[in-house]
Amino acid sequence: MTSHVNTNKAAVLHGPKDLRIETRSLPTTPPAGHVHVTVLATGLCGSDLHYYLHGRNGDFALRHPMALGHESAGIISAVGPECPAQLSVGKRVAIEAGLYCRECERCQEGRYNLCPSMRFASSAKTYPHLDGTLQSTLTWPAWGVHLLPTSVSYEVGALIEPLSVVLQGIRRCALANGERVLVTGAGAVGLLACAAAKGAGASYVVAVDIDEGRLDFAKRNSWADQTYTLAKSAPPVQGEEPAVTMGKAQRVAKEMGEALSLDSSAGAFDVVFECSGVPSCVQLAIFSTRPGGRVVLIGMGSPIQTLPIGAAALREVDILGVFRYANTYPLAMEMLQRGELKGIEKVISHRYTLEEAGEAFETLARGRGRDGRGVTKVFVVAEEGEE
Ligand SMILES: [Zn+2]
Ligand SMILES: [Zn+2]
Question: SMART domains under this entry (predicted)?
């Protein structure tokens, strides 16, 4: 018989805004091929917030209580049988939150993010849902954890998850040294996109957003060379002719180019990372890309949009989708070790303990902490001395 200890705490969502800190039983020894990770840092993501507020994320509704969180790092506290020798107690690891079958065609060709059998922590897409990482101890397959170099903190280790989505985009568009990059949307992912584009060799990075504070932040940290504040657009006019809408987006692209003193007659950017999901920004992205350039859709926006497809197709502007990531953790570790992503932990604006997870989500929902500071990224971290 397996002996159990009752020390695992988890932030479990039971329904909209019904987040409970529960104590669960945990076997003292992980199953074969698994490790226990004492989770020390977890970033909260937009999808977690959707589940927290609405009990669903798009089409995927909560069908039973589920622990939230999927951006985590921690320390190995127990090792099950049949685990690789390098995974011993005390090793620091980042947790990759998706469990794929490792056998299907997509997995075999290295695109496991597209695995039809993918189970992703804290996603209600599959049933039963796979619990998320907002737990004090996570039981996880050994092949789903990545050793953290000593120079990389737990918080940065956790940030590798959202960073991975960006790195997937960078790989999809084969970003080359010296290219000019536009990032639309300067939330946490947009900021990481700016930093990663710089780290990956972009010579010139421009960030645009409607929030000037976020843009200042990007500039202060040298993640963006220049920024441009977009006017808060009026809500789309019902029944407006698409040509009129596209004309507006084209005008914004032109005005932005002029404000930045760019020759934007044919599109000034080699690559645009679209991180807002807002249709007017996707349109702007296409008009701002040079002939033969690439638009990478990183933001999860409305699934049906009207786009100036001619302005893309007739100038061979490739529109690339990104769904999560595959094989990005080793790449992130290399970039971090080479010092190419210095200071990315500064995107973390607020920190709470696991017990305070509810308040952490409320802060994310408000977009502002009780301290009055605007939210870029909310983290749940272990208290001092907990490790
Ligand atoms: Zn996420
Ligand atoms: Zn598969």
Answer: PKS_ER
CA–CA dist 158, 155 (Å, integer): 5
Domain membership flag for residue 330: no
Indicate if 104 and 171 belong to the same structural domain: no
Element (H, E) at 183: strand 180-184
- Angstrom CA distances, 218 to 11, 186, 205, 339, stand at 32, 8, 10, 18
| Shared-domain flag, residues 107 and 221 | no
CA of 215 to the centre of ligand 1 (A): 22
ipTM over 0.85: yes
Angle of helix 242-259 relative to helix 279-288, nearest 10 degrees, comes to 60
Q: Which tokens belong to 62? A: 């909560």
Ligand nearest to the CA of 112: 2
* Nearest ligand to the CA atom of 159: 1
- 75 shares a domain with 114: yes
Low-confidence ranges of the chain (pLDDT < 50): none
Ligand 1 centre to CA of 204 (Å) is 27
Ligand 1 center to 162 CA (angstroms):
6
For residues 142 and 178, state if they share a domain: no
Tell how far the Cα of 26 is from the centroid of ligand 1, in angstroms: 26
- pLDDT, position 302: 82
Judgement on whether residues 123 and 215 belong to the same structural domain of the protein: no
Q: Clarify whether residues 21 and 45 are in a common domain.
A: yes
Q: pLDDT digit string (tens) for 307-363?
A: 999 999 999 999 999 999 999 999 999 999 999 999 999 999 999 999 999 999 999
Residues 122 and 118: their CA atoms lie apart, in Å, by 12
Mean pLDDT of the residues in the chain: 94
CA of 182 to the centre of ligand 2 (A): 33
Residues 190 and 116 in one domain: no
